[in-house]
Sequence to fold (129 residues):
Amino acid sequence: MKQSDPEKEEIKRLKKKLKQQEKKNTEIRNEMAVQRTIFANERTLMAYLRTAIALLAGGIAAIKLSQHKYMGIIGFLLMALGGGLIIYSFYRYFKKQKLIKRQQQEFTQTSHHHAAIHEKEASRYGNSD
Fold:
């Protein structure tokens, strides 16, 4: 059974539309992956800050609520540790944000066709990455 010309044209049109949608979906998926990475970095910052605040609060409580000299020393150490953790958390956050932005700028789109060619070439050499 042979397909008529209008059917062939319709199939070509649908295939072209499908390829365009696949490209659009890939771009959206890549952008969403970047956003997830940025949000994960922000969640990590919040976790560090939450821990730092707990250390600061513990240090203040140790100083204010205890009459013993060693508890005052422990309190000051906890406060210093909390302050250091705040500084480290922001340092780490900005360093990771810079890395994410740089990788986002250097990223180039690849098609499924290129990925298939790479996989075929890699398999020739015994690689499967």
In short: Helices lie at 5-65, 69-106, 112-124. The chain has a mean pLDDT of 84.
